[in-house]
Amino acid sequence: MAKRDYYDVLGASKGASAEELKKAYRTKAKELHPDRNKDDPTSEAQFKEVNEAYEVLKDADKKAAYDRYGHAAFEGGMGQQRGARPGGGGGDFGSSFSDVFEDLFGDFMGGRNAGGARQRASRGSDLRYNLRITLEEAFSGSQKSIRVPTLSACDECSGTGAEGGAEPVTCPTCSGMGKVRAQQGFFTVERTCPTCGGLGQIVKNPCKVCKGAGRVEKERQLSVNIPAGVETGTRIRLTGEGEAGLRGGPAGDLYIFIEVREHPIFLRDGLDLHCRVPVSFTTAALGGEVEVPTIDGGRSRVKVPAGSQAGKQMRLRAKGMPALRGGGSGDMMIELSVETPVNLTSRQKELLREFEGLSQDNHPEGSSFFTKVKSFWDGMKG
Length: 382
Known about the structure:
By secondary structure, this protein is an alpha+beta fold.
């Protein structure tokens, strides 16, 4: 049976442009795809016929040969053996299959737009911002105003890159594909289109403000809510506050990385806070009370038991940091630092020497230590 004219197969006129041929092919391929015509046994053959026709007519060189010689251009004696696929002996099968897949399912997979050209809009880059806050701000939460340098959509052209906000046009070199093909022997080489740089579109009259980029550098002021309980390394994501997308694509995200400054009084350990409080050796020996600060700005009186040693810890329940996502608070640990007095007067020195002579049995920790030392030395001598 004689082959049908390729233009008739696609339902296109002989003088149709590349864009018109592509549109006709998409229409026919979708109409005749076997998955949509499971009850029609002839649909698969018709679908292959449509694919074969478009494989020839989409290529400028093959189309010119077909327009001049018809089907004979791809039969024996015209540069290809009979029975081979038109235009390359099967060497272009992979790219042909890719084209069919993208043309049929591009709308659902983000490959091409309704006009047949690839969707060249791309998502903007994500940005990172390092934000330093105080421990008090991490405790109570706060709202911070930050200034972020970024690429924003050009207001003059609405992000299109074209003067007056006009839409970019399909690249005439690659017909919106973003890539061009060249035959080298038995192989088909595919490379990025040199005219549009792979975008598939060009701007005829570039915007004077953004020079055709569609984006301009700006410094934006943003308000960031810092939740209570954050710590160094906490990441806050602001959706859509990153760089503007290219060709109308979605903006990226802005990630705020928190760093909590060191505090002069409190040391943080997860949800717990540690506070080192100096007490006189008299208070440590006799007992008493000491007033300590809390992270919420309040004060707490802590009872110091008589005979407290340096390093003794006491716990204040729920006076630590709040959990980031709720669930209570940590504790505040008070560590006693017994302070040795300095710049003693003669009378003070006299009283201390008198006290030392009366307190041979009042140092249990020292007595225990030196007993162990004596045993160690005796063992070394033995």
